[in-house]
Structure formats: structure tokens, C-alpha cells
Amino acid sequence: MSDLFLKTGMLLARIPAAISRRVEEAHEEITERGDRGDNPVVTVILWVAGIGIAVTIVAALVALGNRASSKVDNVDLGG
Predict the structure, then answer these.
(1) What angle do CA 48, 53, 55 make, to 5 degrees?
(2) What pLDDT does 35 receive?
């Protein structure tokens, strides 16, 4: 039983060093790679513009549909 405790203790002792090593590797990678250039303000502007264009297109199609519907309503089909 003491052998199991010894092995478990050794494994638990390695965890902080492994975490520290991984954090250092991640920090070095971030430092080397630098800024990716993503700008959240530009992203928001593009999304708002895209949604605005989509809403405008839908509104135009609805207006055209209503105009066509009113013209079709006045047609006598001889029923």
C-alpha cells in the first residue's frame, strides 16, 4: 500500500512543474506570433452593415410583394 502512495505522491509532485512549463511555452508562442490583427470594432461594424443590408433587402422584397398583391387583388378572374 505504501508503494501506491509513493507513486501517487510522485505523480502529484510533477503536476505543478508540467503546468508551469506549459504556461511558459504558451507565453513564448504568444510573444513570437504577436497580434493577429483582429479588431473587434471592425468586426462589429461589418456585422451591423451586413444585417442592415439584409433587412433592407427583405423590406424591399416585402414592399414589392405587397404592391404586386394589391394589383392582383383588383383582377377579376371571372369566377
Answers:
(1) 95
(2) 64
Cα gap 52→1, rounded to integer Å: 69
Identify which of 65, 46, 42, 64 has the alpha carbon closest to the alpha carbon of residue 54.
Answer: 46
State the cell numbers at 25: 511555452
**Of the candidates 79, 59, 61, the residue with the CA atom closest to the CA atom of residue 69:** 61
| Residue 60, SS3 per DSSP | helix
* Mean predicted confidence (pLDDT) in 52-77: 83
Cα 58 from chain centroid (whole Å): 24
Q: At 32, list the grid cell.
A: 513570437
Q: To which residue does cell 423590406 refer?
A: 59
User: CA-to-CA distance for 2 and 71, rounded, in angstroms?
Assistant: 91
- Whole-prediction pTM value? 0.45
